From TrEMBL, chains A, B:
Residues 14-195 form the Ferritin-like domain. It holds the Pfam family MiaE_2. CDD domains: Ferritin_like. It comes from Luteipulveratus halotolerans. This is Hydroxylase. Signal peptide: none annotated.
């Protein structure tokens, strides 16, 4: 099956890259599940707890789809996730949420960063994986709740807004540093994105541009929430 | 709509009892969701974390069905759950799990206690609610994982088994004490189960018998796991 970049799943290195990428995305969804439930437990209202529990269950469904794709491609989900557990877990550990609103910011920023990344990488994978990634992308309605709650809190309490802005900056900073570490360590996934000399994939400059676009999108989103990132 | 006990949803006190009962069950599922996720986070293997996350998501689905039934009956889920939040939360707080296996025991015992209770009360509700309760009951395949893991751990380490047996006893003791407190406080739900003089419902002696049967089932189950409860 040819891809938009002209590469084929019959090519073992391309297939290995797609498997790793799906593993990374799957583990991200799993971390999202636990992160959201954790935030739900500190939510002040029962209705917020329920809304967040639903959002978490939705992340788990996305996990199932992505890990299912790993299996379809002949990979093992746990093996495919293994190289990324440390990066995600470190990100999570290094950005502890100090309040329920920071937890919500983490859910929101984590989710939107993932969304931006999905959008960027969907060009480099096979058509079936691309369709799955786009399906996962499409399905962001659950975030309205986080967005609305954050906007309300920020408009009512500018001091809280200041702290949230700082926290938002740390979230993206730590995420980019983890992403860059992973990019440096993982050949299979990096080969997917970085030019292998055949003219396919992105080149290194394009990869840097990708990180810059993701950072810009995050900044815009923080401003839109009423924060200066 | 006539029930197996001859009572009808057109009877406001019967309807109020069914709404409260569904509220209690719904909140129990919600507590189960958070409890299981909490245990998942301390699971030693990634595969266990995933298995438990799936089990948790399943509890949330059951929550949705039960709270949906409250709405169908003209009730408000949050209002219907409110009288029971304290009892469940107290139970959870008073029985902190000291290890991953105790957490798994809590999941297992909590789930099976709920199952026994569901089975008992399904006789007292209207046919549609009964069908829903039986559907929820039927769906216990996810527990195999907890059961298998506990059996393995107990057969390998009898000392751990002794601690788990004590913990299991506390779980049921605290659950019964909360249930009895709720039964004493909540007229609507108690009227559903206790004879109101019309010959419908259970009488008080039967209610005590119900608690005794649930305790016995718990004891049998602990023995079956390799523990003396």
């Amino acid at each position: 099956m040819a891809t938009s970049t002209g590469r084929d799943l019959a090519d073992p290195s391309f297939r290995a890259g797609v498997v790793e990428l799906c593993g990374a995305l799957a583990y991200g969804e799993l971390v999202g599940f636990f992160m959201i439930v954790h935030d739900a437990e500190t939510a002040p209202r029962l209705s917020d707890r329920i809304a967040l529990a639903r959002l978490a269950a939705h992340e788990l469904e996305q996990y199932e789809r992505l890990s299912g794709r790993v299996t379809e491609l002949g990979g093992d989900p746990e093996t495919a996730m293994a190289p990324f557990t440390e990066g995600f877990d470190d990100w999570h550990r290094r950005t502890p949420a100090g309040s329920w609103l920071e937890g919500l910011m983490k859910v929101y920023a984590g989710h939107t960063l993932a969304t931006d990344f999905y959008r960027e990488i969907s060009a480099y994978v096979d058509p079936e994986t691309k369709a799955l990634v786009e399906e996962v992308l499409h399905d962001t309605g659950h975030l309205d709740f986080a967005e609305r709650t954050l906007r309300e809190a920020i408009s009512q309490d500018p001091a809280a807004g200041g702290r949230l802005a700082l926290y938002g900056r740390r979230l993206i900073g730590e995420a980019l540093s983890q992403a860059q570490r992973v990019a440096a360590e993982r050949d299979a996934i990096t080969n997917l994105l970085v030019d292998d000399g055949s003219g396919n994939g992105a080149d290194l400059a394009e990869l840097t541009q990708m990180f810059a676009r993701i950072t810009q999108a995050h900044t815009d989103r923080m401003e839109w929430l009423g924060l200066s990132a």
